[in-house]
Amino acid sequence: MTTATTPGPGPLAGVRVVELAGIGPGPFAAMLLADLGADVVHVSRPGGVSLSINPAYDITNRNKRSVVVDLKAPDGPARVLDLAARADILIEGNRPGVAERLGVGPEDCQARNPALVYGRMTGWGQEGPLAQRAGHDIAYIALTGTLGMIGEPGRPPAVPANLLGDYAGGSLYLVVGVLAALHHARATGTGQVVDAAIVDGTSHLAAMIHAMTAAGGWQDRRGANLLDGGCPYYGTYETADGKYMAVGALEPQFYDLFLDLLGLPDFEDARKDWTRWGELREAVTARFKTRTRDEWTAVFEGTDACVAPVLSLREAPHHPHLAARGTFTDHGGITQPVPAPRFSATPTAVRTGPATAGADTADVARDWDVPDLLKGPE
């Protein structure tokens, strides 16, 4: 693990982003833009938003600046519109129609700034029968079929935290969308609205699985396929100390090496013989339980058997490979992942800790030339 430094701001230096306060995928998307060097102004609400985390530890607000605007006050919308007039991108995550009712919808903002990219982050999308319904990650991914394919057969689907829906299917697609739209806006002078829906992004993530299903290479049930735990040489196994090893020995040469190091030479022909998969799984399970996770890690260390220890969140930053790459850093006493991906000419970094609500009002008012931010609410 490294100590945070402050190199160049990153490849998005000079890009201005307004982020209307929200929870979940919107703040994470804005953090990613800020990590890449964009000047992200987080428009906080008076009193903040409902979160289960102390704002001082909310690293999704790192590398940002914050101002407080009450959008329900008479002068609130005008202050956001002043920021939008000077921004390249605006991100909001309200239910459809809310931003319009507050006076900061796409038409209001683009009337002030025709080149503005207006990014909308929702679960259900801007239209459709469920567009106005409340929801969270688990409900969104449930309807896409992706939740139903995760977990063991005969047991309830496994809940993948909120990584698959909120962040992979939501935040990352929003970021791709607004950057693509920004490219178009800079070429044409015309902005547009980006409708990033978690149901769309999560469905898109499963493109390969849909292709395999259509081709007859994937069964539409849990734990029956090559990559969902149905295959005994692609899965996780408990060790003698109650920890786990992950196995991904798919290719023949990796599979043969895996068997050799595990001490199971009698199963060389079982790789393609699914009738022996049950027998192979039992043998692999029994072998892994004879040693601890660290002992098995030593056995497979430096080999191409595609086996790795399953680490906890607290263990991960100390793994030799991640430590050597500086995948995690310490900033303000908080261990956190560094910005990704990496750039050769415009390196990124954790420059500042979580933004404190309203702490940057004077600086933003000066830098963005929005003096009304300094006025009290009317």
From TrEMBL:
Q: InterPro entries, per this entry?
A: CoA-transferase_III, CoA-Trfase_fam_III, CoA-Trfase_III_dom3_sf, CoA-Trfase_III_dom_1_sf
Q: Where is the composition biased (Low complexity)?
A: 351-362
Disordered, as annotated region = 338-363
Q: SUPFAM superfamilies annotated for this entry?
A: CoA-transferase family III (CaiB/BaiF)
Q: Which Gene3D superfamilies does this UniProt record tie to the protein?
A: Crotonobetainyl-coa:carnitine coa-transferase, domain 1, formyl-coa transferase, domain 3
Q: What is this protein called?
A: CaiB/BaiF CoA-transferase family protein
Say which species the protein is native to: Streptomyces doebereineriae
